[in-house]
Design a protein that fits this description.
The protein has about 100 residues and is of the alpha+beta class. It is built from two helices and four strands. A four-stranded antiparallel sheet has the order 1-2-3-4, with no helix packed on it.
Length: about 100
């Protein structure tokens, strides 16, 4: 009988919830850098364009609003050390949410 060596499981650190602004993450999942800051890139996604087109048909003077409001766009958090996307915030995911505290 072969005995398999069991390696102790290392607890994986969970990434903090990402918002629309740059944040610090304890460890980058790609380059393993610790206490690294992220930079953000916010841009219109498919959902943003779909919402704009829908508003165009409903009330055309305001169709442009989703294209200028950050909460209607997709935000990517990028590691400043390696340049890899480490987290995303979907469009409209933080719309109408009040933070307590």
């Amino acid at each position: 009988q072969q005995q398999q060596q069991q390696q102790p499981l290392q607890p994986q650190q969970q990434q903090p919830p990402f918002g629309r602004h740059p944040t610090n993450i304890p460890i980058c999942p790609h380059c393993s850098a610790t206490n690294v800051a992220t930079r953000t890139s916010t841009f219109p996604s498919f959902e943003t364009w779909f919402l704009s087109i829908g508003l165009f048909f409903v009330f055309w003077p305001v169709f442009w609003i989703p294209l200028v409001v950050d909460s209607a766009k997709k935000t990517e958090h990028i590691c400043t050390n390696c340049g890899v996307v480490v987290g995303t915030v979907k469009p409209m995911s933080d719309c109408c949410v009040k933070q307590r505290g």
